[in-house]
Amino acid sequence: xxxxxxxxxxxxxxxxxxxxxxxxxxxxxxxxxxxxxxxxxxxxxxxxxxxxxxxxxxxxxxxxxxxxxxxxxxxxxxxxxxxxxxxxxxxxxxxxxxxxxxxxxxxxxxxxxxxxxxxxxxxxxxxxxxxxxxxxxxxxxxxxxxxxxxxxxxxxxxxxxxxxxxxxxxxxxxxxxxxxxxxxxxxxxxxxxxxxxxxxxxxxxxxxxxxxxxxxxxxxxxxxxxxxxxxxxxxxxxxxxxxxxxxxxxxxxxxxxxxxxxxxxxxxxxxxxxxxxxxxxxxxxxxxxxxxxxxxxxxxxxxxxxxxxxxxxxxx
Amino acid sequence: xxxxxxxxxxxxxxxxxxxxxxxxxxxxxxxxxxxxxxxxxxxxxxxxxxxxxxxxxxxxxxxxxxxxxxxxxxxxxxxxxxxxxxxxxxxxxxxxxxxxxxxxxxxxxxxxxxxxxxxxxxxxxxxxxxxxxxxxxxxxxxxxxxxxxxxxxxxxxxxxxxxxxxxxxxxxxxxxxxxxxxxxxxxxxxxxxxxxxxxxxxxxxxxxxxxxxxxxxxxxxxxxxxxxxxxxxxxxxxxxxxxxxxxxxxxxxxxxxxxxxxxxxxxxxxxxxxxxxxxxxxxxxxxxxxxxxxxxxxxxxxxxxxxxxxxxxxxx
Lengths: 316, 316
Description:
2 copies of one chain form a homodimer.
Chain A: H1 6-17, E1 34-36, E2 40-48, H2 60-77, E3 81-91, H3 97-114, E4 118-125, E5 130-138, E6 153-156, H4 162-171, H5 181-188, H6 194-200, E7 204-209, H7 214-225, E8 228-232, H8 240-248, H9 253-259, E9 266-270, E10 279-285, E11 289-293, E12 299-301
Parallel strand pairs in A: 3-4, 8-11
Antiparallel strand pairs in A: 1-2, 2-5, 3-5, 6-9, 6-10, 7-9, 8-10, 11-12
Helix pairs in contact in A: 2-3, 2-6, 4-5
């Protein structure tokens, strides 16, 4: 009996389901979302209790809002304007109505904030809460993972390690400590970078959202583009407050920035300057693989792996 | 702590999420699927282990194919041509690769058979297997639930009780008994009535797929149309083989035809004759509610309830 990793499984799934019936210009499995009939972008994402969150991490409305935002982030990464969402909820039979109403409220908030009305869904019973969100958007010029070229600059929006730091605080039940409040909030209330994605159309050569972690997602972008990249560790966005909070939890701040998932920031490549507020973190290379440039100028292969739900037996 | 029924919850969900941002001609929550920007139809459905199926009921490929068909059936009910599917799988961490490959195979079969390529999806870990399928289709003339008018004839395709009879055989572990083979196969290998749905455009005044059960789904159609209906029990489609198999399991054949869910047949109303092969089972009335005309001519309110995952503490 073999149990391969999530990424191996996605590769096998793609090999069997590769979308033969799609039109020439369409994109099926393999990017942040599917791209259909030039205008339509669609993607799906699931948040599962005990895997992606514990109920104690946030009020139920925030957990549902977060599930929706995680899915909407794939629209941002494609440079798509949201059209709507479908919410498929699996709920334990005894789940009380107050919790149910909070889940609905969370979806409604995400819908209002991101301009993505909930247009349908499904309810079913199950052992744990799972929230599967399908998002629909449109763009006639999608941002794909596959257009990065050697020499392009690499940028990332926001603070990609903040949510991961917040998650570590939550896992250690330190969320009431003021030092971690900002980062716990980053985990609890992420935003899909819809406006950034729209602004990047026609400017970015490739883009992806940081869901697995900056290095892991950069690896996906490079593989899709047939290129490599070098990240300059000294350029990574983190401040003294972040470093101190990471140290208080015994975590290395750079590892959090490079490896922390669920940030929902956009990582993109561009031949020119960034048209939006973002931090330049590195450069696209012709040589495959992702490398890190350390403070002393040494360049070495990057070794951090992104979080893999199936292979990981870790704390989450 | 209150735990309301699935239908009550859907009503509350609709009240909070009612799609205010949709264009005038669009349909959000409340029909078989959402109808967006005249051409796009989208819906989502989940199949959960222990709720919708047990692993012993069929090979994994058949269970996955069935999950996809259940979702595709909503496109059929809307009179939409499939464009593609997204498959969001939640799988136990130890699930072996042979099972995973079988799930993929099942989706591939459904995709090939129904002309609906899998264009994306998601993998996550969880306690039990759940398969959430988003389907996308297109039509410029959707079949809605809401157009039935008094005097319209009611038709249903195929044999709406067959899958439910097969499920009863499976629950009693009688699937190897030749008397039940045809019905077990009906449960294991349903088909979405895509061609029927397409043929009904411009002919049916209202349509719905039989997923909760003929009477329950007729109730949904009538409520959406602001009408009632009378079903003629003597006209219901079931043959002597069906009746004998039902009797062998201690089930009433008429109750199976009226109450059996997961049939994925189409129930529709039309002012004219049916343009497709289907059985006329009754008539639309102005008086709200669903009634049954018994063999002796007596007409009485229908009392069977469709299956409700949340309210039911039953055998499934």
